[in-house]
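Q: I'm writing up a methods section and want to include an example of the input and output format. Could you take the sequence below and give the corresponding predicted structure tokens, formatted cleanly so I can copy it straight into the document?
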Amino acid sequence: MRKILPLLVVVSFVLSGLGAVGLSVEKENEEPQSQPRDYTHTVMVEVGTATWCPSCPGSNTAWHSIYGSGNYDFEYTELVYDKNSVASSRFNQFNPKYVPTSYWDGGQYAHPGTNYATFYSYLDGSGARSVPDLVSTLDATWLGGANIEISYTVTNNEVDDYGGRIRIYVLELESTLWNDYSGNPYYHAFLDFAENKAINIGASDSISDTFTWDGGAAGYPSITANNIQIILAVFGDTSHQGYSDPPSGNPFTAYYSDECIATLPEQTQNAPPAAPDINGPNSGNANTEYDYTFVTTDPDGDDVYYWIVWGDGCPAVEWIGPYASGEEVTVSHAFTSQGDFTISAQAKDEFDNEGDWGYLEVTMPRIRNLKIFDFLQNHPILYQLLQRILNV
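A: Here is the clean output for your methods example:
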């Protein structure tokens, strides 16, 4: 783990009075289970981390491994605070001292460093906590163009009103943006809150909403549907004392998560891109380079790739892109021989759905020196004589 100091990135530290650097990474061997432990609710874990932190790869690897085992009922996200201002804002609510630091259910437990046995123990401890009877649903639909439609309901089955806050996390399962200090991608890297607001749910009542999260507007236009997870967590409004440097260092006010649910975006029926329009010179000279433009539109607004075949035996241009739907792409080519050729192009979207082919006929004339041709046309008697000699 690494200490966080204002305006200063600390590369190493020694825990005062303990003479130890960080916490050791210890892994507990467990027998595989057929299903997760029986918890009162799905636990929510938030991990504060930074790309400059030499101790953070251990935490990144540990949580990815524990989650992948399927033995624990929890969801988690990595708050890469030095790269993401929204992540930084959330991490700072815990008054952190070190990275990495993990927080269970909004701060019921906090642990700086990486220790598998502690991670397991705190998961079980949070999972055993008595929570209000809340039931949530969560659906996400990928609309294309980094837009996700999100629908949720939260039902309060208690006899008393429930007050608190709902947070809906959008994260990349494997980050395409940020790597940890060891150069490995962050797993479950937090991108943005699709929702982050105070709520009040009446007794035996529900709240619900449907809205669209715009990934492009949030600064993430290149995300893809198959690499996104959505997590909904409901935090109560009862305050608790938490410490980011336990047992008593760096105090913060904790609000525990009482309900958590996650989903992956479903893709709507995906339509392929239209056949590309090809524009450029349809006649010219061999061995002269010409520019050709290719453009298509995708009905779903997905990014597109192009495959181009020149028709003259030269190698094809294979799946260049991605480009935005409707964006013109210019590619240059010189035909190395004379004759008639057909330029062919096909487009596919980011989900590998291929559309129809588009075509453009081009001719490279057999009389390559147009200056000679013009000269003969300006001297008709000589031109006729040449025609008779050549029997043209």
